[in-house]
Design brief:
2-enoyl-CoA Hydratase, Chain A, domain 1, 15 helices, globular
Length: 356
Amino acid sequence: MVRVIPRVTHAGARRLEQLTQHLHTARKPNHAVRLVTADNDPTVAILSFGRAPANAFTYEFLRAVGVAVNMVVNIDPKIPSPQDLTTLGIHSTIQDYHCIRSLILTSDQPNFYSAGIDITVFLGQDASLTQAHPDAEPRPTKGVSETQWKAFWGLVRDVYITLYNNAKVRTVAAINGHSPGLGCILALACHDRIMAQPTDNTKQPTIGLNEVKVGLPLPIWLSERFAQVCGQRYAEKELPFGAMFSPQEALRMGLVDKVVETPPESVPSATSQSPLIQAAVQWVRGIYAKLPPASAPNSDAIWVAQMLSYRQVRRELTDRFYEREQEDLDASYSGIASDAIQNTMQFVLRQLQKRN
């Protein structure tokens, strides 16, 4: 069968090279990203976050996720060497990246999809960020430097838009637990979202954009994406309050597309036996069922046409995302660097240290 490749220029390969440029001098991470294919289906990749205890994103961890995403969604992926993958903290058993048509993003950690950005990033205490981006200017008296924050937020933007604007694979977020902030952002980048609802009602996960609760306004592109998914009225009612939503609330407002009941004794959330992963794979197969079988002569061409149509539908938001890049980087640092935010982050860190 002749594979039809769309003539689309991707920045992903260039970003992959940028993300791996520090590998040979970097220490080995103490966390991992895992890439596997679904049982009996090499077209479905499963990317699971594995930084205990709650998948909070440091620069190093987000860089690993970004490289793994690029490996899957690029039309002509450049796969790092096994040594570089190990250094990054990526474990992959995928043999053929070209045949992948769907990507499921999930978590290896119980009760958490992702807790968002690690507190050390805000405070300028993320060693991996300091190593990758040494300061060119004098450091502020407290908090992250402008150089380092813009490098981190730029990486957030890169991972988001690579998922959102890809023209190769269908993306599904399989949300097994709490998903505030950056966890919700990555889920919103996907085409579809499926969320677990434990039958043990004492441990209900929540999802949402809670940045306002610590005094950070949402970037324009993120507010627009939330409104695109949930509707303008929900965005106006909920985003100014940093609201978090239970699985059923998220389903009613369209933030997630399906809720899956998971028993407390369920197997780990990222394994193929997990009810959540099984539901995500079935969701993907439901998409496949609407198209000609893979054995059909025009199967590849139709898949490419479908994915490019998704990109066209999303083009207006994507164009604005790029047009406002510098504005977003400047505004985000202005918020993070304020005394009020830094004092809040210091307080949060002290509370976390007391718990430990």
